[in-house]
């Protein structure tokens, strides 16, 4: 991301570790916007379709649940 080769990244992890990873990104890459995927439906839709964060953190279950939304959108990630 720092070199410009990656514009957006999706970080997938178990739900209990999401806040840990957000904290780690904050310590080691504080200049990079990191956003956790919210649990509520309307907020999740906004997260996927309109949130400009460079790094999105999501858990396995939510990613599976939202797979139809992601398949129908033009959303893509340079790094997963």
Descriptive report:
The protein has a 3-stranded parallel beta sheet with strand order 1-3-2. By secondary structure, it is α/β, with parallel strands linked by helices. The mean pLDDT is about 90. It has 4 helices and 3 strands, in the order βαβαβαα. The two termini are about 10 Å apart. About 40% of the residues lie in helices and about 15% in strands. Helix 2 links the parallel strand 2 and strand 3.
In short:
The chain has 80 residues and is an alpha/beta fold.
Distance linking N and C termini: 12 Å
- Could you give a short account of the major beta sheet? 3 strands, parallel
Q: Write down the secondary-structure element order.
A: EHEHEHH
Q: Please give the count of helices.
A: 4
Rg, Å, rounded? 12 Å
Helix content: 40-55%
Instruction: Name the overall outline.
Output: globular
Overall mean pLDDT stands at 92
Oligomer: single chain
Which structural class do the helices and strands define?
alpha/beta
Q: pLDDT below 50 for ≥5 consecutive residues: which ranges?
A: none
Instruction: Give the strand content.
Output: 15-25%
Count of beta strands:
3
- Adjacency order of strands in the biggest sheet: 1-3-2
């Amino acid at each position: 991301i720092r070199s410009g080769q990656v514009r957006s990244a999706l970080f997938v992890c178990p739900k209990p570790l999401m806040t840990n990873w957000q904290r780690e990104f904050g310590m080691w890459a504080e200049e990079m916007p990191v956003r956790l995927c919210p649990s509520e439906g309307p907020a999740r839709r906004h997260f996927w379709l309109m949130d400009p964060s460079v790094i999105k953190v999501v858990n396995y279950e939510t990613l599976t649940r939202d797979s139809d939304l992601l398949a129908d959108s033009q959303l893509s990630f340079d790094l997963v």
